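Q: How would the structure tokens look for this protein?
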Amino acid sequence: MNSSYKSLKEECYQANMELQAEGLVIHTFGNVSAVDRDKGVMAIKPSGVPYKDLKSQDIVVVDFDNNIVEGRLRPSSDTKTHNFLYRNWGQIGGIAHTHALYSVAWAQAQRDIPIFGTTHADHLTKDIPCAPPMSDALIAGDYEYNTGMQIMDCFQERNLDPSEVEMILIGNHGPFAWGKDAHKAVYNSIVLETVAHMAFLTLQINPDAPSLKESLIKKHYGRKHGKDAYYGQ
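A: Here is the predicted structure in token form.
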């Protein structure tokens, strides 16, 4: 691949293929992007291309105004959503969007995913938020751009930090996750789907299951995050 964006496109391609390998996407559903802030561009999966046919050279590079910088195909229809988040949250380096089964089910139910157990608390200390469905006026407007605004508005209204809560559900739509790079965005998508599945099963077993107590939330989150973390090598 003769391209000045070769490494960025390869990162994006590998993350998209990982999303498929983990069973979080089917057919053409979902997408991952990766950003290069020094060059002022992001790379994203092309629209409507099946994962089985996707190649690294198919990845599309766009600037922060959504203009194609490199690529022969149209970028994902969600490009404006990704770009909105990159422009407003300067700390993130990758974004993933899926239509994974249990994550979407919670989004369609318009419910936050409660923090029931330590698997959830290993990654964040709060319920996974579900933004309310988009208003008719925003749907009729610049829909994908407004989806990014819908995500940011939810975080502002709930006083959430996107560096700590790296995932969200969009009511009646599905999940978005992000991280320091595209690989971490995919990792967080896997966590989100796993926690969504666990929470669903928890409520089947006990509809009145209580939330995880605060002391366990702090303990498990603290083991992996912050200055006193001691998990791993």
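The chain has one domain: 6-224.

The first strand starts at residue 31 and ends at 36.

Upvote if useful.
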